[in-house]
Amino acid sequence: AQKITQTQPGMFVQEKEAVTLDCTYDTSDPSYGLFWYKQPSSGEMIFLIYQGSYDQQNATEGRYSLNFQKARKSANLVISASQLGDSAMYFCAMREGGDMRFGAGTRLTVKP
Amino acid sequence: EPEVTQTPSHQVTQMGQEVILRCVPISNHLYFYWYRQILGQKVEFLVSFYNNEISEKSEIFDDQFSVERPDGSNFTLKIRSTKLEDSAMYFCASSDRTENTEAFFGQGTRLTVV
Questions:
Q1: Which positions ≥6 away from B38 have C-beta within 8 Å?
Q2: Fewest CB atoms within 10 A around its CB: which of A24, A56, A95, B9?
Q3: Do B104 and A43 touch (CB under 8 A)?
């Protein structure tokens, strides 16, 4: 069974600094996808970034990058140059085959 | 840009009543999901649906829940006899069949059971 762990219920970061949100996962399937979603206070789920289990390089999307350490089964999200609008809940998710399961989330607060 | 749409955005129902939450997934997607999020808490998987049948369901998805794809476009979640603890945001999502495709989420239906 899948298991996604986000150990940081809340994080604070100063505006313009970088922040790392942790995610570890557990699977015995060699083929899987890892995802990060952002949920602002308005409630919608916004896809941020994807990493495939066979990808050799870490994924990047603008200010978002995914620090993928396969042997450690971790997929941490790095947000560079934080902005006030980055304040939100962030969920890590893993997909094996068709199913996608989520971690408990990390609430990020960006301080001015 | 194609999107997942959910109706209604908010539904209030009396305990014990049946509710049907509706979703129109992205048209060429093959996997469909329902998730539940109690206010301020984690996104909980309910059920996944592929090829006109349930592919996986969680322990939350008991006999009071059912899903249906009544036609080529809609995907519904029915709760037969609502309880107070069913109050939550319900998200529908859809995705392509491969692992390397994200799930696209609808805006959610906020269900309030009184």
A1: B44, B87, B88, B89
A2: A56
A3: no
User: What is the reported pLDDT for A21?
Assistant: 98
Q: Which residues partner with A107 through β-bridges?
A: A10, A89
Phi, psi of A82 (to 5 degrees): -55, 145
Work out whether strand B65-68 and strand B88-95 pair parallel, antiparallel, or are unpaired: unpaired
B/e letters for A61-82, b = 16+ CB within 10 Å, e = fewer, are eeebbbbbeeeebbbbbbbeeb
The alpha carbon of residue A96 and the mean position of all alpha carbons in its chain are separated, in whole angstroms, by: 16
Of A31, A98, A103, the CB nearest to B31: A98
Residue-wise pLDDT for A13-46, tens only, equals: 999 999 999 999 999 889 899 999 999 999 999 9
Residues of chain A with C-beta less than 8 angstroms from the C-beta of B103: 35, 47, 93, 95, 100
Question: Nearest Cβ partner of B107 from A35, A44, A50?
Answer: A44
User: What string of DSSP letters covers A17-72?
Assistant: S-EEE--EEE-S-S--EEEEEEE-TT---EEEEEEETT-SS--EETTEEEEEETTT
Q: Chain A residues contacting B, CB < 8 Å?
A: 31-33, 35, 37, 43-45, 47, 50, 52-53, 91, 93, 95-105
Distances (CA, A) of A10 to A34, A52, A69, B53: 21, 26, 22, 38
A-B contacts at Cβ under 8 angstroms:
64
**Beta strand pairing status for A64-69 and A74-79?**
antiparallel
Contact A98 B89 (CB under 8 A): no
Q: Is the pLDDT of residue A54 over 80?
A: yes
